[in-house]
Amino acid sequence: MKIRNLFLMFLGLAFVASCSSDDDNISGGDDDNNTGGEDPVEVIDYFPAETGNSWTYFNEMESGMEELEGTSTEVLNIEGVEGHTVTFNTEVDGETPGLFTGALANGEIEKIEGGLVYSGDMNLFDFEGIELDIPFSEMLILDEEAEEGEELFTVEGEFMEEIPFGEFGNFDIEVSYTLTVNQGENLDVLMDYENVKSSVITLSNLSVIIHDVPVIGDLELMDNTTATVLEATNYFANGVGLIKSETAVDIPFIDLLDMMPVPVPGVPDLQEINFNISQDLADYIVN
C-alpha cells in the first residue's frame, strides 16, 4: 500500500495560548515589565512568535505497518508575523513529518489575549493520488484560563471532493467528521521545562463515502464511523513553545479490493491504518 506520504495533520493539530511580543503582554505593566514600583510580573507566553524563532524536534512513528514506521528530525521555523497572525514552515530530515508541525505549516495562528486560534487545512491522508484535506477556521486550541477538561472548540463538518477511482474515472467523495478540542492538564514540570499546559484534539465520527460507483453505488470507506480516529495531546512550556506532541491514529478503512466484484486497475488498496507518532523538542531558538 502506497501510503508512505500519509500525513494526519491534524492536525494535529493543539497549540498554545500567548500574547504577541510587542503589545499583547497579558501580565500588565509597561514595556519593561514595570508595574508602578511593584515586583515585575512574569510574562506568560506559551508560543513565543518572533521572526527568527525555531524549534527542532525528534519525530518517531510506530506502527504494526512497516511502511509507516520511521524517525526524522524536523525544524519548525516562523516564516512571518503580521500583526497578531503567525505563519510557519518546516524542514524535515527523514521520512516521518510531524502531525502538529505539519498543521502549523499548512495554516496560520492568530495570537489573542490568553489564547491561540488556528485556521488552515488539515491534510488527513494522501494515498495513491487521493488527497483529503479538512479545512478549519478560527479554531481555539488553547486557553490559559480554561479548566482541565473544558471544551474549547467543537465542530461537526463536512465537505465534498472529486477523486480518481481507477478506470472508473473521477467520482465525488463526501467526508464528514466531528472535531473537539479540550483543555488538557497543567504540569509544574515536564521534560525539565516548567509551567506546562496542554490541550487535546479528538477527531471522531469520520465518514468517507464515494458516490455513484458503477455496480456498487454509494460506498462507505469506513468500517466504523463512530470510532475516535485521532487523539492528539500537545504540551507547551511558558517562554519556550511546543515541547512535546503525542498522537494516536486508528483509521478503520474497509478493504476496498474485497468490495470490488471484479479487479479494477488503479483502485486504491485501502486497509485499516493505525500508528502512534511523537514529537519531542530537542533544541530551540527563541528571541
List the helices and strands and how they pair.
Elements: E1 54-62, E2 70-82, E3 85-94, H1 99-105, E4 107-112, E5 115-127, E6 130-143, E7 151-164, E8 170-190, E9 193-213, E10 217-220, E11 228-237, E12 241-251, H2 256-259, E13 273-285
Antiparallel strand pairs: 1-2, 1-13, 2-3, 3-4, 4-5, 5-6, 7-8, 8-9, 9-10, 9-11, 11-12, 12-13
Give an overview of the whole structure.
With 287 residues, the chain is mostly beta strands. The protein has helices at residues 99-105, 256-259; strands at residues 54-62, 70-82, 85-94, 107-112, 115-127, 130-143, 151-164, 170-190, 193-213, 217-220, 228-237, 241-251, 273-285. Strands 1, 2, 3, 4, 5, 6, 7, 8, 9, 10, 11, 12 and 13 form a 13-stranded antiparallel sheet that branches. It starts with 53 loop residues before the first strand and ends with a strand.
